[in-house]
Amino acid sequence: MGILGRWLLLLGLAVLALQLYLAGRILLMNVLDPGSTTFQRSEALRILRTQGQLPWRQDWQDLSAISPQLARAVIASEDAGFVDHSGIDWDAVDKAWERNEKAEARAAKRAQAKPAKVVGGSTISQQLAKNLFLSGERNLARKAQEALITLELELFLSKSRILEIYLNHVEWGEGVFGAEAAARHYFRIPAKQLGSAQAARLAVMLPAPKRFEKRPGSPYLSGRTATIQARMPAVELP
């Protein structure tokens, strides 16, 4: 075996070791609640650097201690096919791709200096995979790793456990993570007591929580909240 072959073998073994390590971490999540995510740690460092202190709100709650209204709202807003897909919603990916191509074509016609906004098709499982283990880089290798982690999450954890971890670690504002912290921060109540309108409002914030935290009176936030609230009764929970 030549030098190139040895390097390729070492690379392959390193990739395999990484996947086994991640699979082991995910398996442990069946019995151990993850303490923090890669995204949370990067956010904590950023806040410390910019503010010189770390205002942080997070309080883990079992899924049974979180209002089912919030679970329904998040699924309705973020991933309508959550209970049915195997981690990656290919129909949503295709639709997002088509929207992005149309947006890029319109931008090209207008000769815009900045690129068109990219619309994603990430499922709850994909978002959790990214937040748990990955950086914010956007490249093919990172997307491939995200897909692998997503499939491992779906293979080793139940849908309800994936949702539970997601709801406890997703960002809901500057230093605000998880359903309990969000409910107390915005409504001064525990997550168990969230009503349908409150839950819908929190769910709508998820794509850009820091922006909506600063603009609570946003017309989009109010309009989208009503839409999500109307969809919630039809949502199936895992």
Automatic annotation (TrEMBL):
* GO cellular component terms attached to this protein's record: peptidoglycan-based cell wall; plasma membrane
Q: Which domain of life is it from?
A: Bacteria
Transmembrane as a keyword of this entry, yes or no, is yes
User: Which family does this protein fall into?
Assistant: Belongs to the glycosyltransferase 51 family.
Q: From the UniProt record, give the pathway where this protein acts.
A: Cell wall biogenesis; peptidoglycan biosynthesis
- Residues annotated as transmembrane: none
Which keywords, in A-to-Z order, does the entry hold?
Cell inner membrane, Cell membrane, Cell shape, Cell wall biogenesis/degradation, Glycosyltransferase, Membrane, Peptidoglycan synthesis, Transferase, Transmembrane, Transmembrane helix
What reaction does this enzyme carry out catalytically?
[GlcNAc-(1->4)-Mur2Ac(oyl-L-Ala-gamma-D-Glu-L-Lys-D-Ala-D-Ala)](n)-di-trans,octa-cis-undecaprenyl diphosphate + beta-D-GlcNAc-(1->4)-Mur2Ac(oyl-L-Ala-gamma-D-Glu-L-Lys-D-Ala-D-Ala)-di-trans,octa-cis-undecaprenyl diphosphate = [GlcNAc-(1->4)-Mur2Ac(oyl-L-Ala-gamma-D-Glu-L-Lys-D-Ala-D-Ala)](n+1)-di-trans,octa-cis-undecaprenyl diphosphate + di-trans,octa-cis-undecaprenyl diphosphate + H(+)
Q: Which Pfam families does this one have?
A: Transgly
InterPro entries assigned to the protein according to its UniProt record, in alphabetical order: Glyco_trans_51 (IPR001264), Lysozyme-like_dom_sf (IPR023346), PBP_transglycosylase (IPR036950), Pep_trsgly (IPR011812)
Function text: Peptidoglycan polymerase that catalyzes glycan chain elongation from lipid-linked precursors.
* Protein's cellular compartments: Cell inner membrane
Determine if Zinc-finger is one of this entry's keywords.
Answer: no
Stated EC number for the protein is 2.4.99.28
A Gene Ontology molecular function term for this protein is: peptidoglycan glycosyltransferase activity
Give the protein's recorded name: Biosynthetic peptidoglycan transglycosylase
Q: How does it sit in the membrane?
A: Single-pass membrane protein
GO-annotated biological processes: cell wall organization; peptidoglycan biosynthetic process; regulation of cell shape
Domain (Glycosyl transferase family) spans 57-232
Q: Which PANTHER family match?
A: BIOSYNTHETIC PEPTIDOGLYCAN TRANSGLYCOSYLASE, MONOFUNCTIONAL BIOSYNTHETIC PEPTIDOGLYCAN TRANSGLYCOSYLASE
